Amino acid sequence: MNASTVPHQTQPNKEANKAQLCLLLNVAATPGLGSLVARCWIVGSLQLLMAVTGFVFIMMWYFELFRSLIQEGVVSASSNSWKWQTGLILFGTAWIWGLITGLTRCRVSRKLLRPPVL
């Protein structure tokens, strides 16, 4: 049996594999990275920018908390609580957006996998 007689469903689907990789990278690695791999340049760049900005805000809050603990011996990060909250909102939004983008790519690739109805 040659490759031309193999049914459509049994042939490897590169688009489905790419969609699964996109989902995995967006959820497990860095939001936006999977979207960039899937060649969604604008969406991926915005997701990555939001995730990195959120991470920077959280790290700024953390280092200020650590510095106040070292210098004063007491935790006084309540005045800068907006930094971790903003960071969490930005990173969380980017993560959810990346999840939606990855799931959408998987759904579209499954539609491509189905043979046309006659």
Number of helices: 4
How large is the share of residues in beta strands?
A: under 5%
Mean pLDDT: 83
The low-confidence runs, each spanning 5 or more residues with pLDDT under 50, are none
CA-to-CA gap between the ends? 24 Å
Number of spatially distinct domains: 1
Largest sheet: none
* Shape verdict: rod-shaped
Query: What is the radius of gyration?
Result: 21 Å
Number of strands: 0
The oligomeric status of these chains comes to: single chain
Tell me the helix content. Answer: over 70%
Concise overview:
The chain has 118 residues and is mainly α. It has one domain.
Tell me what the structure shows.
The protein is mostly helical. Helices cover 73% and strands 0% of the residues. The protein has four helices and no strands. The protein has helices at 14-29, 33-37, 41-72, 81-113. The mean pLDDT is 83.
Strand-helix topology:
Blueprint: H1 14-29, H2 33-37, H3 41-72, H4 81-113
Helix pairs in contact: 1-4, 3-4
Search tags:
single chain, 118 residues, mainly alpha
